[in-house]
Amino acid sequence: MAVGVKPTRAEKKTLYDKKLCQRLGEYSQILIVGADNVGSKQLQDIRKGLRGESVVLMGKNTMMKRSIKVYAEKTGNKTVLNLIPLLVGNVGLIFTKGDLKEVREEVAKYKVGAPARVGLVAPIDVVVPPGNTGLDPSQTSFFQVLNIPTKINKGTVEIIASVELIRKGEKVGSSEAALLSKLGIRPFSYGLVVQSVYDNGSVFSPEVLDLTEDDLVEKFAAGVNMVTSLSLALSYPTLAAAPHMLINAYNNVLAVAVDTEYSFPQADKVKEYLKDPSKFVVAVAPVAAADSGVGPAVGAKEEEKEEPAEESDDEPLIGLFD
């Protein structure tokens, strides 16, 4: 291309394809951002703030979709096609090698205040706070039209109570816009807003970036509980439900053994305690004495002499299910 000669439309498309394909090959993480009401100066500041690990690329949606398809055909990487459904409205791409959450936070720093223009759809609720407006009493009728309670204080108009002037999703009227302008209120702020996240072929909501390790552990535990409950309800053995199934089965067999003459080694000890409840006291007393650090002085030597018989390797672990 000759110096000083403007590229043709076809040449511009070719250059854009090359640029976007290069970015797709170099970066595996992409933030899809909305760019409504973002000015060129503001976008330039964002580019400077992200310079280093991140690159901002804007363009028409049709051009971006075309370049992504070209890249997928050339490389065989079909996962990038997941970006195409996300290219709706006034959006751009931020390619990054840094931490996605940190990049999003850096982008959010460049929001700027903006006045309420007539016909604009309010992104948030707009509330006019109480206080002195500094306007002269001739403006009282203007406030009355908008049903804003006022009074005259020291020769100026004072708003008595806060008023919700515009609700989120409503269009800004001429009266509301004029009032906010008179009061010097710039209620809206605009900047690049992260709408979706692309990470190595996966697409997810930006809210996922706010999850902590504790949140992940909590969600995992909730999932395990659901699997366990479902497995128990269906009597379907899983790793999560197996311990509960074994304990429940042991409890059922033990209940039958207690109510009948049938017995098994693990039930013998339970039956022994049920026949002679005083053994509960004998079993608990040494433990309580050991915890308090005070033991019986009398008969200690005799107890030491009585060595318990060695347990056989074949003897079941009776205490396992106690």
Automatic annotation (TrEMBL):
Gene3D superfamilies: 3.30.70.1730, 3.90.105.20. Residues 293-322 are annotated as: Disordered. Residues 116-185 form the Large ribosomal subunit protein uL10-like insertion domain. It comes from the Eukaryota. It holds the Pfam family Ribosomal_L10. InterPro entries: Ribosomal_protein_uL10, Ribosomal_uL10, Ribosomal_uL10-like_insert, Ribosomal_uL10-like_insert_sf, Ribosomal_uL10-like_sf, uL10_eukaryotes. GO terms for biological process: cytoplasmic translation; ribosomal large subunit assembly. Residues 304-316 have a biased composition (Acidic residues). GO terms for molecular function: large ribosomal subunit rRNA binding; structural constituent of ribosome. CDD domains: Ribosomal_P0_L10e. Ribosomal protein P0 is the functional equivalent of E.coli protein L10. Belongs to the universal ribosomal protein uL10 family. P0 forms a pentameric complex by interaction with dimers of P1 and P2. This is 60S acidic ribosomal protein P0. It comes from Quillaja saponaria.
